[in-house]
Amino acid sequence: MPLRSKLPDVGTTIFTVISRRAAELGAVNLGQGFPDFPIDPLLAQRVAEAMAEGRNQYAHGDGMPELREAIVTKLARAHGIAADPQDGVTVTCGGTEALFSAIQAVVHPGDEVLVFDPAYDSYEPAVRLAGGHCIRIPLQPPSFALDFDRVRASLTARTRLVILNTPHNPACVVHDRAALDGLAEALRGHDDVLVLSDEVYEHVLFDGRSHASVLAHPQLRERAFAVFSFGKTLHVTGWRVGCCVAAPRLMAEFRKVHQFNTFTIATPLQLGIARYLGERPASWSQLGEFFGRKRDLLATALEGSGWRVPPSQGTYFQLLDYSALADEGDVEFAERLLREAGEALIPLSPFYRERPRLRLLRACFAKRDETLELAAQRLREFAGRCAPVRARA
Ligand code: GLN
User: Fold this and answer.
1) How many angstroms separate the alpha carbon of residue 192 from the centre of ligand 1?
2) For residue 33, which atom of ligand 1 is closest to its CA?
3) For 321-346, how does the pLDDT look when each residue is reduced to its tens digit (9 = 90+)?
4) CA of residue 57 to ligand 1 center, whole Å
5) Same domain (yes/no): 253, 302
6) Same domain, yes or no, for 50 and 26?
7) How far apart are CA 296 and CA 48, in angstroms?
8) Which residue's CA is the nearest one to ligand 1's atom 7?
9) How many domains does the chain have?
10) Are residues 21 and 120 both part of a single domain?
11) Shared domain check, 338 and 213
C-alpha cells in the first residue's frame, strides 16, 4: 500500500545536504552553523563529573531545578527579564524541540501562522504537522525590516501565531525594540494571536546593539514563547540543550506536548551546564566581542576581492553578496563554489516560499581563525577567476 506522506515535498535540510557535499568534496565548511573550536574544558569536566557521580537517570521532565534556576538568573542578568523557574521555564532538546513543541501546543488544524521570509527551515514543517499553514511574509534585503502593513493585512480570524526570529538566521539582522513595538501595535486588538520568538542568538549581537526579547516587552510578554539555546551560548550544538520560557498559562500547554515529545533532557548535561553557569555566571557576556572579532576577520580577509560583505548585525553568520562576481541563482552558485573552490556556503533563496532573485550566500564564522583564513583565501581565489559581471541595465 502506498504510504501517504505527511510532508511530501520536504527533503533533507539544506544544512545537512551542504554539510554532506562539503564532506564528500573535502570542502571548507562554512555552511551549517556549528563551531569547530574546543569548548571550555571546565564545562566538559562538570558534565563528566555529573556522569561519574551517577546522575544518569531521568531528569524531571520540566528540566532539572538547578538548570531552570540558572536560566532564570541568566535571563535577569542578561536582559532584565523576570521568569518563573517553577512554571515558566522548560528545558528542551535544543531550540528546535522548543519551537516544535510550542507550535504543536497552540496551533490547531486550519490555523494560520505568520512567518517572515527568509524563515529558518524548521518552522513551516512543524506548523504543517500541527495541521496549520504558514502565511509567509517576504522581507527585503538589505534591511529585512519587518513589514507591519503585511502583518496587519494578513491577520484573519484563523491567525493563531506569529513566528519571530531575532537576531535573525539566515538574514543576519537584528530586530530592535522599535520593531517589537511595531509588532505589538499590529497585534493590538488580536488578543488570541500568540508570538513564538526564536532568540537562540540572544548573546551574539554586534556594533553596540542589544538584544530585544519578546519577554522584555510589556505588550508581548504574556502572549509569547521565547526559545533559547545552550548549543549557541556554550558552543555545544551537539548536546541539544535549549529551553522555552513563557507565561505559566502558555507553559502549561507547552509541557503537555514536551512530555510526550522528548519527555526529558540528558541529566548529566543539564547538571553540568547548571554547575558551570554557577561558576562562570557571565560566560555568555563576551560572545558578542568574541564572534565580532571573527566576523571582522572574515570581512577584512575578503576586502577588495569582489565579494561584498554587508556587516552582520547578529548571529554567527555573515551574508556574502556575489552579485559582482556571477549572475546565476544562489543554489547553482553555491554548488559551483563547492566544486570549483572547495568552499561550502548556504544559499539564501531556499528560506523563502517564493524564491526571489537573490545573489546572497550565508557563511558561518563560528570557526577557528585558521579555518576562516583558509575559507577567505579560497573565496578570494575563486572571485579572481570570475569574470566581472557587467552592471545590469
Ligand atoms: N542552526 C543551524 C544553522 O543555521 C543548522 C542546524 C541544522 O542543521 N538543522 O546552520
Assistant:
1) 31
2) 10
3) 999 999 999 999 999 999 999 999 99
4) 29
5) no
6) no
7) 35
8) 15
9) 2
10) no
11) no
